[in-house]
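User
New here, explain this?
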Amino acid sequence: MKEGQKLWTRDELILAVNLYCKLPFGKMHQSNPGIIQLAKLIGRTPSSISFKLVNFASFDPTLKERGIKGASNASKLDKEIWDEFYNNWDEALIESEKLYAKAKNTTVEKLNNIDLSDIPKEGLEKSRLVKTRVNQCIFRTIILAAYNNRCCITGISNPELLIASHIIPWSKDEKNRMNPMNGLALNGLHDKAFETGLITIDAGTYQIKVSPRLYKKDAPLSIKQNFLDYEGKEILLPGKFLPDRNFLKIHNGRFKS
């Protein structure tokens, strides 16, 4: 360590991984507003934050699969914190969000602009609903960042039209509800088709498969343009957090052939 530099604390690294998850891979530079904001919050320079995010990229197996390497001088504590997230996304993400909210003297609900007007004022039901909405908001932020705010099938880039879809449904796998590798950025139409098994993404090739049920002689032009024309095409792959092939295999099994 150079003279004058200070060691990173555990809390600082947790906040850095939180930010790593929320930024598109190509936007982890020192002039990014999110990086500048975190730097001010923890008393570090934007360049040091940016460099730390690149350190974390060296651990990301999905980047390695794409042939992308991060920095090679990450610390033992860097790896330890990364593993805590990677092995338990659901708990690690919400705890990091609470830490970030505390550093900003606010709550996770306010930090994520969660509307609480239609939920009970108190009790276990309130806690459950608040946690669910916060988690869904964080998951959406991470998935849209990974896919650079584009539908992975059509390339639609209007965030208002995009959904952070789960490969394995929220209700079916509690352990992987927040796992970024269990997510896809889809527009509303293709999200519904994916949910119902009318389309799937091949686990081996990341190519789109369209159910034979949509291949009808009298199918309207909209079916051809929105589905049939995408048959066999590779999805637009995310900058990080590639879809987990094992999750896709499970979804392939639900495909309506």
Notes: The mean pLDDT is 91. The chain has two domains: 10-87, 138-252. The radius of gyration is 20 Å.
